[in-house]
From TrEMBL, chain A:
InterPro entries: ABC_transp_permease. It is a multi-pass membrane protein. The lineage of its organism: Bacteria, Pseudomonadati, Pseudomonadota, Alphaproteobacteria, Hyphomicrobiales. The chain crosses the membrane at residues 22-42, 54-74, 81-99, 105-128, 135-155, 175-194, 223-245, 257-274, 279-298, 304-322. This is ABC transporter permease. It holds the Pfam family BPD_transp_2. Keywords: Cell membrane, Membrane, Transmembrane, Transmembrane helix.
TrEMBL record, chain B:
InterPro entries: ABC_transp_permease. It comes from Mesorhizobium album. It is a multi-pass membrane protein. Keywords: Cell membrane, Membrane, Transmembrane, Transmembrane helix. It is found in: Cell membrane. The chain crosses the membrane at residues 12-30, 50-75, 95-116, 123-140, 160-182, 213-234, 246-263, 270-289, 295-316. Its main location: membrane. It comes from the Bacteria. It holds the Pfam family BPD_transp_2. This is ABC transporter permease. CDD domains: TM_PBP1_transp_AraH_like.
Automatic annotation (TrEMBL), chain C:
Pfam families: ABC_tran. Keywords: ATP-binding, Nucleotide-binding, Repeat, Sugar transport, Transport. This is Sugar ABC transporter ATP-binding protein. One of its GO terms (molecular function) is ATP binding. InterPro entries: AAA+_ATPase (IPR003593), ABC_carbohydrate_import_ATPase (IPR050107), ABC_transporter-like_ATP-bd (IPR003439), ABC_transporter-like_CS (IPR017871), P-loop_NTPase (IPR027417). Residues 8-244, 258-503 form the ABC transporter domain. Belongs to the ABC transporter superfamily.
């Protein structure tokens, strides 16, 4: 493991950071570095308006990564994110077409559809013990199939409700975008669940050693099921917000969120093997990824370059602190 | 028991996949408006062979108890490369093809190095390298285009003697040249052993790392052969994200249908080939029954879901619940 | 044989795992053309010794000499190369490969760079024939073979490597009597051929029949070497048990045969081929031991009570009422109030990277929380109580539990269950690998809990513990209760005799499913 290297890096940092997880500290250090790098390109990079704008963009990813983190903490993974996002968005927009009642129920309905995908994942992983990677790929394909049938293969004509647009783009508090507030609320709830509830403890326990958690009298299968359902629901909620942001849903709107959501969680120091990680790290990871994207687009980096840099940065960071222990 | 019975037991997954394929193809061609003609077979073969190559690639990695979520992207990348390189005179084309295959090998080797020597989890590592490969593909072909040596393309996608689809022959040759030597080599056996029980393999002094590395590397090569054939069929290169992802996904479905265990150590690429052909045929059944093609993705997704759930039946035989958590 | 220079010698070998000494300056020398038996209790260091020999484990200190030259082995392959081949207790076969594939796995015959299947088949058939197992088909998959056949394949695989020193670690534990006889024939022939054989077994009758030389291990040291047959069974048992340390066991209360309904009762429990018609009952305040050789169904019995096993037949009664326990969460529910201190604290008892606090409250979270939210003040109070009660030594509650010593880790496992105030406590070899001081504390604690009204079922591989702690002991053999000892009947000799089957019992019938647990 490369903990010694990180210890060395952390050792040169101020005391309050040193006490934190080295991975989280590294992620925050990278954020600072990116901001400085960006400010070389343009002065406006450090302006409050720009930073708030970045936070707003980050909050969509943040909501989705929250669910992903819960699943990764269990030592599992959710690859059904792309079409959970799209399903949430499309179903919410679809409900909006059914008059005022539909509009009122649009958001919960979208989330519920994502939750249903998550429940199928959870049943597969917890009760049928199918590897999460496989079952979530399969449900992703089914969700895609359902949406293709529903939309006829085109972007649906239904548009987002006023409420969705308000949530994604409005300002309930002056100067603070609603999306950021929503992310903050969801993040706070997640921190509370992870640190103060028996469910949160069970999640960490299962991620560390499912066998021990089971023998401690935890209903491990129920916990896994709930975590996947929450992940599906949050992905769908992310989709609802995105639809509100763009005023409508689109076919492949979720594709761009799979790798970033995993990367944000893992770069934030959550172990891909489960059981270890803090939400603060995920916040850092989300902001880091968003800034990276933003800088690449400011630099007018084409999509190709962005994909390559993503992949390389993620592999490099993982090699730095995400390795599994040597077997002997 | 007689020898042939053991052989039969060992090949059960492969034979089952073969049987599913035969039945599905019989239904398919019987209901096809044109019937069982050389043309129908050729079209079906050409579509099936692409997935068969990618499924073979996936098999090699799955045997080691790993997974390669970048095979579809290697497939896409090499497609884009071939649309630049596999053109011109015979010699130029030959160099181009060699370069494309070499790239595939390199991509596979990078995956292997990161997973085995870098000790990263195969899922995350190959999703990330997949992004890199897709980025490279997009770099090569920001918009679809390019061309290919059409003589070679037509030769390899046409028919021999008017009946035998050339793509099937090519698939056969690849099996002989890549799969058979691998499965019979010491390192190939090491890959199986590592997938079945890494501890026992270590105790027995098996070259685990080299075996796994070879499996990942050859997976890259096979995906590249698939990408090359895609170019021969379409005459163009296209960095299509959705198509790359779909191939990764379908390769897993094909592997499962082909009797390859996702937990490693069991199965053969031949099974995966029939799994791929069967999967393609099932997907195309909708057409001959005049369903709306819109239903195809859903249909394929459901087949995939059923295929991966089949393995769960072993679970009900487990009598000590602690075995769930191995 | 005394005049012959040894083929292989180990001198001053030491090995520690964390704080636990597995080997302490152990010596051993092996002569060609002889069978050398190694004896010792569980945890005496035998397994570690042979792991060092076979290159699986690197010793902390000491040297090994082969043919007069000093050697070190970096891996099992290196030891094989030098001619040292070990048949391990945990099998080293690859389940999805065929018997022939497995036999030649470390060095398959090749032709044009590919494995020559014909030659492979020939080698496999020869090796199987040499091991007296020609009935095994070389093309059969290992996973389809029953355990006893696999063990024969393991032996054939070892022979195919042309060893000079062959180590058999409990290699007969899963074999049928007929196979044991065959193997003995093979081993004797190998001795004639000039091989050195190391034979590790719990079975006195086997050792008496086979061995030329014996070495007894105790507490990581070789305590005695003697020519086979020069000591009586009794003397050997004394050597194995030793008199070095005596545990201080708490006084047992005078047994009052209360007429109350037993807290925990089992009627005709059977499961798979591991548990065979077991009936027992435990009253409040009683400590009942489970004895016998390792792997005779003791673990399965505890798991059966705790709701882990499926397809159990028979009845479990709590307070005289039949219950069905479908999961550990049902077992630990207040209506049943059961706790299990599991076999392996590192993988089953604790989440090592998590903090002491999180581990301690993990099993009692439902009691400590309201509406799913943990009452941290209540948690802190209860944790303080437990840390005090068990005298857990830790640098703080928020350090990873993995940083604690083995003994303190085990205390955490016990404390986490005591937080639920269980009425029935099942313990699966709780003192394995922990220091003597902590052991004594645990014995006191067990008696204290029993006095407070708990019913305790206690499996131990250490006979002293069973004698010192238990009011009654049930000796298991082949999944069935072989003998029940109570009060003064619980003696070393009674325990060992019924466990080892020395006293005039028929040769043990070793069922297929009786895999020996890790030693």
């Amino acid at each position: 493991m490369s903990e010694t290297t990180l210890g060395g890096i952390a050792g040169r940092m101020p005391k309050f950071i040193r006490r934190a997880d080295p991975a989280v500290a590294t992620a925050f250090a990278c954020i600072v570095a990116l901001l400085l790098l960006g400010s070389l390109y343009s002065r406006s990079f450090l302006s409050p308006e720009y930073l708030l704008q970045q936070l707003k963009v980050a909050s969509f990813l943040g909501v989705i990564a929250t669910g992903m983190m819960l699943v990764i903490l269990l030592g599992q993974i959710d690859l059904s994110v792309p079409w959970s996002v799209a399903t949430g968005a499309m179903m919410a927009c679809a409900a909006a077409a059914y008059g005022p009642v539909g509009s009122a129920l649009a958001i919960p309905f979208g989330i519920l559809c994502g939750g249903a995908i998550g429940i199928v994942n959870g049943i597969g992983v917890a009760y049928l013990r199918i590897p999460s990677m496989i079952i979530t790929l399969a449900t992703n394909a089914v969700a895609q199939g359902l949406m293709v049938v529903y939309t006829g293969g085109f972007s649906p004509q239904d548009s987002a409700t006023v409420a969705m647009r308000y949530l994604a783009t409005g300002f309930a508090v002056p100067a603070v975008p609603n999306a950021v507030i929503i992310w903050a609320l969801i993040g706070a709830a997640m921190v509370f669940v992870l640190t103060r509830t028996s469910f949160g403890r069970a999640v960490y326990g299962i991620g560390n050693r499912e066998r021990a958690a089971y023998l401690s009298g935890i209903d491990t299968r129920r916990v896994v099921l709930i975590a996947f359902a929450v992940s599906g629901g949050l992905s769908a909620f992310g989709g609802v917000l995105l639809a509100g942001y763009a005023s409508k849903a689109a076919q492949s709107m979720g594709d761009a969120y799979l790798l970033p959501s995993i990367a944000a969680v893992v770069l934030g120091g959550t172990s891909i093997l489960g059981g270890r990680g803090s939400y603060l790290g995920t916040v850092a990871g989300v902001i880091l990824i968003t800034l990276l994207q933003s800088i690449l687009s400011v630099m007018q980096m084409p999509e190709a370059g962005r994909q390559i840099i993503y992949g390389v940065v993620i592999v490099a960071m993982l090699l730095l602190y995400g390795r599994t222990p040597a077997s002997r | 028991m007689k020898d042939w019975r053991y052989w039969l037991a060992e090949q059960r997954g492969t034979l089952l996949a073969f049987a599913i394929f035969i039945v599905m193809f019989a239904i398919y061609s019987a209901n096809h408006p044109a019937g069982f003609t050389a043309n129908v077979v050729q079209t079906a073969a050409n579509k099936g062979v692409l997935l068969a190559f990618v499924a073979m690639a996936q098999t090699l990695v799955v045997i080691t108890a790993g997974i390669d979520l970048s095979v579809g992207m290697i497939f896409t990348l090499t497609n884009c490369m071939a649309s630049w390189l596999a053109v011109g005179t015979g010699l130029e084309t030959a160099f181009g093809v060699a370069a494309v295959l070499g790239t595939g090998l390199l991509c596979g080797a990078v995956n292997g190095a990161i997973v085995i020597y870098g000790r990263l989890q195969p899922i995350v590592a190959t999703i990330a390298t997949g992004a890199v490969y897709f980025g490279l593909a997009l770099l090569l072909r920001p918009v679809p285009g390019g061309s290919v040596n059409e003589d070679l393309a037509d030769f390899l996608t046409g028919r021999f003697f008017g009946v035998v689809p050339a793509s099937l022959v090519a698939l056969f040759v690849v099996v002989l040249v890549v799969w058979v030597p691998f499965s019979r080599s010491e390192l190939g056996r090491a890959a199986y052993a590592a997938g079945s029980s890494e501890t026992a393999a270590y105790m027995s002094g098996v070259p685990i790392r080299r075996g796994k590395f070879l499996a990942y590397t050859l997976a890259g090569l096979l995906a590249a052969i698939g990408g090359l054939f895609l170019t021969f069929f379409t005459y163009t290169g296209e960095a299509a994200y959705a198509s790359g992802n779909a191939y990764t996904l379908f390769s897993i479905a094909a592997v499962v249908l082909g009797g390859v265990s996702l937990f490693g150590g069991k199965g053969s690429a031949i099974g995966a080939i029939f799994g791929a052909l069967a999967f393609r045929t099932i997907g195309d059944l909708l057409f001959v029954f005049d369903f709306d093609p819109l239903w195809q993705p859903l249909f394929q997704g459901v087949i995939l879901l059923i295929a991966v759930s089949l393995g769960a039946f072993a679970l009900f035989r487990v009598r000590n619940r602690l075995e769930w958590f191995l | 044989m005394d005049g012959v220079a040894p083929l292989f010698r180990m001198e001053g070998i030491s090995k520690r795992y964390g704080g636990v000494r597995a080997l302490e300056k152990a010596d051993l020398s092996v002569t060609a053309g002889s069978i050398h038996a190694i004896l010792g209790e569980n945890g005496a260091g035998k397994s570690t010794l042979i792991k060092v020999m076979a290159g699986v484990v690197a010793p902390d200190e000491g040297r090994m000499v082969l043919d007069g030259r000093e050697v070190t082995f970096a891996s099992p392959a290196a030891a094989n190369q030098a001619g040292i081949v070990c048949i391990f207790q945990e099998l080293s076969l690859i389940p999805e490969l065929s018997v022939a594939d497995n036999i030649v796995i470390s060095d398959p015959p090749k032709r044009f760079g590919m494995i020559d299947r014909k030659a492979q088949r020939r080698i496999a058939e020869e090796a199987l024939a040499r091991a007296g197992a020609s009935d095994i088909h070389p093309l059969a998959l290992v996973k389809d073979l029953p355990l006893s056949r696999r063990q024969m394949v393991e032996i054939a695989k070892a022979l195919a490597r042309k060893p000079r020193i062959l180590i058999l670690d409990e290699a007969t534990s899963a074999l049928t009597a007929a196979d044991v006889a065959k193997i003995f024939g093979v081993l004797k022939r190998l001795r004639e051929e000039g091989l050195a054989l190391l034979y590790i077994s719990h079975r006195m009758n086997e050792i008496a029949e086979l061995a030329d030389q014996c070495t007894v291990f105790r507490n990581g040291r070789n305590v005695a070497s003697y020519a086979a047959g020069s000591k009586s069974d009794n003397e050997v048992v004394e050597l194995m048990i030793g008199r070095e340390y005596s545990h201080i066991f708490p006084a047992k209360p005078a047994r009052s045969l209360s007429s109350t309904v037993p807290v925990l009762e089992a009627r005709n429990l059977s499961w798979s081929d591991r548990l065979d018609n077991i009936s027992l009952s435990i009253a409040a305040g009683e400590v009942v031991g489970l004895g016998g050789l390792d792997g005779q169904g003791q673990r399965e019995l505890l798991l059966a009570f705790f709701g882990v096993l499926r397809g159990l037949s028979g009845q479990i009664l709590i307070d005289g009422k039949p219950v069905s326990i479908a999961s550990p969460s049902a077992a630990s529910d207040d209506r049943i109030g059961m706790a299990l201190i599991p076999e392996d604290r590192k993988t089953e008892g604790l989440m090592l990277p998590m903090t002491v606090r999180e581990n301690l409250s993990f099993a009692a979270l439902d009691r400590l929380s309201k509406g799913g939210i943990i009452d941290r003040a209540a948690e802190q109070r209860l944790i303080d109580d437990m840390v005090g009660l068990l005298a857990i030594k830790t640098a703080g509650l928020d350090i990873p539990v993995g940083a604690l010593s083995g003994g303190n880790q085990q205390k955490v496992v016990i404390a986490k269950w005591l937080m639920r105030q269980p009425r029935i406590i099942l313990l699966n070899d709780p003192t394995r690998g922990i220091d003597v001081g902590t052991k004594q504390e645990l014995y006191q604690l067990m008696r204290k809990l029993a006095d407070a009204g708990a019913a305790i079922l206690f499996y131990s591989t250490d006979y002293d513990e069973l004698i010192g702690c238990c009011d009654r002991v049930l000796v298991l053999y082949d999944g069935a209760v072989k003998r029940e000892l109570a009060g003064a009947e619980i003696t070393e000799h009674a325990l060992i005799a019924s466990a080892l089957n020395i006293h005039g019992e028929a040769a043990p019938k070793h069922g297929e499913g009786m895999k020996g647990g890790p030693a």
